[in-house]
């Protein structure tokens, strides 16, 4: 039996879909090698707006950063954001690569961007409650406690 190879969505298609859904965003693409999208997401009608940067590099996956506000607030007394790869870079953890929750066969507008909006909604709730209710699995840093526990 032959192993099925992923049918990657062309970056031209990704760019077109991003432009149609987010017409005021900025997109740059280097052929089929990389794509960068910068757009604004407002997770709920009562939320503030967040500027988000999505970066895709072939064979490297997708990275998502919050670029504005430049420094996200932290829950009282906390030194790190919950469920991120980097608090300093504000690089979000949206999926667990090992589980293939996101693949190159998916449109960013149907996966990564809605997941970013969901992460931001849970972030706003975390600011109020101190609990991360966004779930998900995150590669442990120094055998850190489960992120669903009180931060």
UniProtKB/TrEMBL annotation:
Listed name of the protein: Type II CBASS E2 protein domain-containing protein
Organism phylogeny: Bacteria, Pseudomonadati, Bacteroidota, Flavobacteriia, Flavobacteriales
Xref: InterPro entries: E2-CBASS
Highest rank taxon of the organism: Bacteria
Pfam families: E2-CBASS (PF26395)
Type II CBASS E2 protein domain span: 15-139
């Amino acid at each position: 039996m032959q192993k099925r190879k992923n049918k990657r969505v062309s970056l031209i298609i990704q760019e077109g879909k991003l432009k149609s859904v987010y017409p005021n965003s900025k997109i740059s693409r280097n052929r089929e090698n990389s794509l960068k999208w910068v757009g604004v997401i407002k997770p709920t009608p009562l939320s503030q707006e967040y500027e988000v940067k999505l970066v895709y590099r072939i064979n490297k996956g997708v990275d998502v950063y919050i670029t504005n506000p430049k420094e996200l607030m932290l829950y009282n007394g906390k030194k790190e954001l919950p469920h991120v790869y980097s608090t300093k870079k504000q690089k979000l953890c949206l999926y667990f690569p090992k589980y293939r929750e996101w693949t190159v066969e998916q449109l960013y507008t149907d996966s990564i961007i809605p997941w970013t909006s969901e992460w931001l909604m849970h972030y706003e709730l975390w600011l109020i409650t101190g609990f991360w209710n966004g779930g998900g699995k995150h590669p442990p840093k120094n055998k850190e406690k489960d992120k669903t526990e009180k931060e």
